[in-house]
Design a protein that fits this description.
mainly alpha; 3-stranded antiparallel beta sheet; two-stranded antiparallel ribbon; 7 strands; 57% helix
């Protein structure tokens, strides 16, 4: 604390000890921030902005020193002189080294805890940022973003519920809070992007201090790859094994055991112990004051349930007693209780203990107390679960429903008065309890939902009941319980209950039966019940969306078959003009007019139609069935005499119906091009959509409505491939929305529409100084995916397609440099890396230390963020950029572990390509992705690159087995017409690196049949460049590797029937390069392959084809052919006599202008001598020609080859004699003398040794 010096952090001035105390002297503060909340309720946004900047300043300072605060809340923020604030209470603060990247100990106040904290998952500094978001939200709104008096509900809200945004909050502030309150810590707004958010940009005080040598990377900087790997490993090792919070699990276990224990002893013990046998449903403690968070305990369980459960820490799994509280702190670290109710609840009287065994069945007081008990407060946390685990309570509920239900069916008021409290208790219990197992057990024992649906059905069939004054209230409360039942988590497949799903399906079917009948009735007096039933149906749809494909598909399919009455009733209700909402007798009066209510019948119907059409994000099980419903609606919308389309279009300017109807139209346009054309020709529809974009329609949720409108317009342009009337002038307004909005989803939707408009020729003025920051913000802020973009695109696809257009159209070198030098370029690849969920790069040592030695498959990419089309667009952006700035590509590729290099390598991996192929439209874009990656990886081989740099790039590619990936890509994923570039890259890698070559051969050996088949087809195809590259690759393999690896090459040349048709075809290929490389391959193979030598002898005409290359017009072919024939002649064996036909051509090649051809011809003729062809060689004066070349050829290597050949040929007596008669010794002696006369500083030619040896061999003593 002494070392922390920041204007927004309380400064420790001194500290000393007395006999009994430790005294700390700090800055003087004038109060606490929470006192302002108590006095004023909330603050204006400008004041919140000032506080936000100071809080961020303080946290930036702490996080730059790798310190976590871990207890951010209003009570720990002091008010300083001059209006400033100071952060205090560092009792739970923790400094972290690089050895500790994440923490798991639970510290803090529940209202401000992040989702990862309440789930007991490993967390880091982003937990502090979540708390800041909670504090700022509370300052602006008056309550925390997630507030309830039940710890179970609180955990559920923090983990699952979205934040409710008041309409008064500005878009910029809302976007700032949305970033901080993102549930996924990886997507949460964090450093350094947080500093540049417009809400606080330029207001943050940054005090830079040199970090100590042991601090490591500050939290305010992005982690380098090696530390990110370490952090991920720690998080994986420390993650809890279960999928449920241990805290809540232990609490539920403790409550259940306590309830069972009380039940076991309920009839024993003296009367004095009667109180112990009573089930305490509520506590008699007084509620706590507003917002004042009590002191804290190091463990969350003790912190939030200390007054609720008095069991020992050992009993709850803590293992040791909590430490003693620290007294002399601003906030004591002692026992913490959950914050009490808000001011409106603070004045409620205390409730009494309820004895379920001694109360009368029909006691209204008892049901009132039970209703209070089912709404737990901080000091009643176990009350709902205790009720569920009490068999008497379950029996009473069932009896009350049966007996009171029977009286209701007789039309008795007494039945209604008895059943209403029970229904409200049930509704509260079903809504508040998050533990599905005891909740479902209770429902099953109590006869739910059968009793509820039976009451609903019988009440609908009885007109006498419907005339009762209490019917409205009864039907409303009954529907509320049914709705709460459908919303329970035990109705999901992942629930731990055994038979809940069949019960849920049957209940849903019965409800649809009754809903269909209710909607088909023309009685206007039952609008409230219709509305409530339709709202319940919407909740049922949400539950179905989260269920398995089988269950959800059956449910939605039934709306087109057996439950068609429901769908018809909804559509009829939407097209029928609705009178003012009728309030039946007994129901509360409606205070607002119909047009201002969000829960009226038209609003409920439009919401229900949207629920059955819109495909839920990340839940594809029901998409197919919902698509069928959308198709059915689209068919009705396109009928000429149907009133449905005019009704939907007329509602687009309704403040409440607008959003739901937009979703319906959007879903239907996805499946109907005809509907798109009709909407494009509908003036009122286009006018409404344009007005929505321009903000001229006042709607309840302008942001989401505008987003859906933008996507709907994009879809219309995409389907029509034309611009509907009026959209030509919309470009500038959409561009302004793109560059100025702080809402990421709106920016993404605007980019999507701009991309479509650009393809239709619409021009819009987008300056780099505007669109680069806008793109950076959209990519760095957390993604808020609320709706699937058009045509299966990803959330960022439109942004990437627009970026590609801008770079292509405005592609000046200065613009490219502005892009690549901006923060956007780094953020772009980081976002791409995260969206594809690529595995982290680890070193060999780390791989050995990993939990499992085999490589684990990577996670499925988040196609909702970037679809295959988006991947292709981003890679195209990279190609366009690096074509302009190739050196930048080299700098990225040469950085080992860089996001770009890691991404490119992973995009070629079999695991990703399999995922890509299974993704929507993935197979369509797979070739584009692969070819773009190959194009980027070819840059180093196309440029003049430093040798060391190229070695590093090759090593990186080799370590990732890119060579094997490329071959597998060509075999399994690409059509033959598109494999040329990958094979070219593969060949470059294999020719430069032996490890890459071995990877190629090993991959062939792993799947010989498939890969040899591919190589055979590719060799004989009509792509000369592809064939040439493959021949070079095969020739290099034959030249470098041992003969044991060459069998597949022999198989390729021989063909499946061993007729050598492939080899014949290649030797006669019209392309010079193909013929030359074929002869070269043969030359290397003939050094080792006995089978190929045998084929030249046994296969008719094959040897003639080989010899035919000696006279080819192309020098490269002649050179390769002479090399092949020379190797054939070496130890030719039975082939020797047949090679006599090669002598004339070889002799002719001795005069070829190219030295390489002359050298090969000389060597070949030398090899023919020992094969008994002396006469043929003498016939064509080969010894004379060779002697002349040895003495006069201008090329030293040709001279050397001629001398070696003469040494070989002189073994033939006839040739020896000829050489003697030619005076070879004298001529060679002159040559040798010339070599000796060279200056001493000049190196002696290699031929000198052979010259002396040959002179020695030609002496008479060596003649034969």
């Amino acid at each position: 604390m002494r070392g922390l010096r920041h204007p927004n952090i309380v400064h420790m001035l001194d500290s000393f000890e007395t006999d009994k105390e430790v005294v700390v002297v700090t800055d003087y503060a004038e109060g606490e921030l929470f006192q302002i909340l108590e006095d004023d309720g909330k603050l204006p946004e400008d004041q919140v902005q000032a506080i936000a900047a100071q809080l961020v300043s303080a946290l930036y300072y702490l996080h730059s020193h790798r310190i976590l605060h871990r207890d951010m809340k209003p009570q720990n923020i002091l008010l300083a002189k001059g209006g400033g604030i100071k952060l205090c209470d560092f009792g739970f603060a923790r400094a972290m080294s690089t050895n500790t990247m994440v923490l798991t100990s639970i510290k803090g106040t529940p209202l401000y805890m992040s989702p990862e904290l309440v789930e007991e998952r490993p967390y880091d500094h982003t937990a502090d940022l979540w708390s800041v978001g909670c504090i700022l939200y509370e300052l602006a709104v008056g309550t925390p973003p997630f507030y309830t008096t039940s710890i179970f509900q609180l955990v559920n809200l923090i983990l699952k519920d979205p934040v409710r945004w008041p309409p008064t909050i500005s878009p910029c502030f809302k976007n700032f809070l949305q970033g901080l309150l993102t549930k996924d810590p990886r997507q949460r707004l964090s450093w350094p992007d947080l500093l540049y958010h417009p809400f606080i940009a330029g207001r943050v005080t940054i005090i830079t201090e040199p970090a100590g040598p042991d601090l490591g990377t500050p939290f305010t900087s992005r982690l380098p790859p090696e530390l990110q790997v370490l952090k991920d490993q720690q998080a994986h090792l420390l993650a809890p094994k279960g999928n449920r919070s241990r805290i809540l699990r232990q609490a539920c276990k403790h409550m259940a055991e306590e309830a069972k224990q009380k039940q076991k002893h309920q009839n024993t013990g003296p009367a004095l112990e009667q109180e112990d046998r009573t089930v305490n449903v509520v506590s008699g403690m007084t509620p706590l004051p507003r917002l004042r968070a009590a002191p804290q305990e190091p463990g969350l369980l003790a912190g939030v349930m200390a007054s609720e459960m008095k069991s020992s820490w050992t009993e709850l799994g803590a293992g040791e007693a909590p430490p003693a509280p620290r007294e002399n702190q601003h906030t004591q670290d002692g026992e913490q209780t959950f914050p009490g109710p808000r001011p409106e609840a603070a004045g409620q009287p205390t409730t009494d203990v309820v004895d379920l065994e001694n109360e009368e069945l029909d006691s209204d007081d008892e049901w009132r107390h039970l209703l209070e008990a089912s709404k737990p407060t901080p000091i009643q946390l176990k009350a709902p679960l205790t009720l569920l685990c009490n068999p008497d309570f379950c029996q009473r509920i069932q009896s009350q429903l049966q007996e009171a239900g029977g009286q209701i069916l007789k039309g008795k008021l007494e039945g209604a008065s008895h059943i209403l409290p029970a229904l409200r208790v049930l509704s509260s219990l079903l809504s508040s309890c998050s533990d599905s197992v005891p909740l479902y057990s209770f429902c099953r024992e109590a006869g739910l939902p059968g009793l509820l649906l039976s009451l609903f059905r019988h009440s609908q069939e009885s007109s006498s009941i419907q005339q009762q004054c209490w019917y409205g209230t009864f039907s409303r409360d009954l529907m509320a319980v049914i709705q709460a039942y459908f919303a329970c988590t035990f109705n999901l497949e992942r629930s731990q209950t055994d038979d809940s799903l069949p019960v849920f399906q049957e209940a849903a079917s019965l409800f649809l039966d009754m809903l269909g009948k209710l909607l088909s009735q023309p009685d206007d007096s039952r609008q409230t019940l219709r509305r409530d039933s339709v709202m319940c149906f919407t909740v049922l749809c949400e539950a179905m969306d989260g269920n398995s494909c089988t269950i959800s598909k059956a449910f939605y399919s039934s709306l087109l078959t057996t439950q068609r009455a429901v769908l018809d009733g909804l559509l009829h209700g939407l097209t029928t003009p609705q009178p003012p909402l009728h309030t039946p007798p007994g129901a509360p009066q409606v205070s607002q007019p119909l047009r201002e209510q969000g829960e009226d019948l038209p609003g409920a119907i439009s919401s229900a139609l949207a629920a059955i059409c819109i495909a839920p994000l990340g839940l594809p099980g029901c998409w197919e069935a919902k698509e069928q419903i959308s198709r059915h609606l689209a068919d009705q919308l396109t009928e000429d005499n149907n009133q449905l389309r005019p009704s939907l279009v007329s509602g687009l300017q309704h403040p409440i119906l607008c959003l739901h109807l937009l979703k319906v139209l959007y879903s239907c346009c996805h499946v109907s091009e005809h509907l798109c054309r009709l909407l494009g020709q509908e003036p009122l529809a286009l006018e409404s959509l344009l007005m929505l974009v321009q903000g001229k329609v006042k709607v309840v949720d302008w942001e989401e409505s505008t987003e859906v409108t933008l996507y709907l317009l994009s879809l219309l342009v995409l389907r029509l491939q034309d611009l509907p009337p009026g959209m030509q002038e919309l470009g500038s307004e959409i561009a302004a929305l793109f560059t100025r909005s702080h809402v990421v989803s709106l920016v993404s939707a605007a980019a999507c529409l701009l991309g479509q408009l650009g393809q239709q020729g619409v021009t819009f003025d987008l300056q780099p100084v505007e669109w680069i920051p806008a793109t950076t913000h959209a990519l760095s802020a957390p993604a808020e995916v609320r709706l699937t973009p058009p045509d299966g695109c990803g959330f960022y696809d439109g942004l990437l397609i627009l970026l590609l257009q801008l770079l292509t159209q405005q592609g000046k070198a200065s613009l490219i440099w502005d892009v690549v030098s901006s923060e956007m370029w780094t953020v772009l690849w980081h976002r791409f890396f995260m969206a594809l969920r690529l595995p982290k790069e680890v070193s060999t040592q780390e791989e050995e230390l990993s939990l499992s030695s085999p490589r684990r498959s990577s996670s499925e990419p988040d196609w909702m963020l970037i679809s295959p089309q988006g991947v292709a667009a981003l890679l195209s952006v990279a190609v366009v950029t690096f074509t302009q700035e190739p050196q930048l590509c080299l700098s990225h590729l040469s950085q080992r572990g860089s996001s770009l290099m890691s991404t490119l390598k992973h995009l070629l991996s079999p695991s990703f390509l399999q995922q890509l192929g299974h993704a929507p439209h993935g197979s369509e874009f797979l070739p584009v992705v692969v070819l773009s990656v190959c194009q980027l990886l070819c840059f180093p081989f196309a440029l003049d690159v430093d040798a060391d740099l190229l070695v590093g790039i090759l090593a990186d590619l080799t370590d990732s087995e890119v060579t094997a990936y490329l071959l597998q890509v060509c075999c399994y994923h690409l059509p033959l017409s598109q494999v040329e570039l990958p094979i070219s890259l593969l060949t470059h890698l294999a020719l430069r690196d032996l490890t890459c070559l071995n990877q190629f051969v090993n991959t062939v050996a792993a799947s010989p049949r498939t890969i040899v088949s591919f190589l055979s087809v590719a060799l004989l195809g009509d792509q000369p460049l592809l064939t040439s590259d493959l021949l070079s690759l095969l020739a290099h393999t034959a030249r470098v590797l041992s003969p044991s690896h060459l069998s597949f090459i022999q198989e390729l040349l021989a063909g499946s029937d061993e007729s050598y048709r492939p080899l014949r075809s290649l030797l006669g290929h019209p392309d010079n390069s193909v013929r030359a490389r074929t002869y070269g391959l043969l030359g290397h193979l003939l050094q080792h392959s006995v089978a190929l030598r045998g084929a030249l002898q046994s296969q008719a005409g094959l040897l003639n084809l080989l010899l035919l290359g000696l006279g080819d017009k192309d020098p490269a072919v002649r050179r390769s052919a002479s090399f092949a024939v020379g190797n054939t002649a070496y130890q030719a064996g039975p082939l020797g006599p047949a090679l006599a036909a090669a002598v004339p051509s070889m002799t002719q090649l001795l005069g070829d202008p190219q030295a390489g051809i002359r050298r090969n011809a000389v060597s070949a003729l030398g090899n023919l001598g020992p094969e008994g062809l002396g006469e043929e060689l003498l016939q064509y004066e080969v010894p004379q020609r060779l002697l002349e070349m040895a003495c006069r050829d201008p090329q030293p290597d040709v001279k050397e080859a001629a001398l070696i050949a003469l040494r070989s040929l002189r073994q033939e007596p006839s040739i020896h004699q000829v050489l003697v008669s030619l005076g070879a010794s004298e001529k060679l002696a002159l040559l040798s003398l010339g070599n000796q006369l060279l200056p001493h500083s000049s190196p002696r030619p290699a031929s000198a040794k052979h010259c002396r040896k040959l002179i020695h061999l030609l002496r008479p003593t060596h003649s034969t």
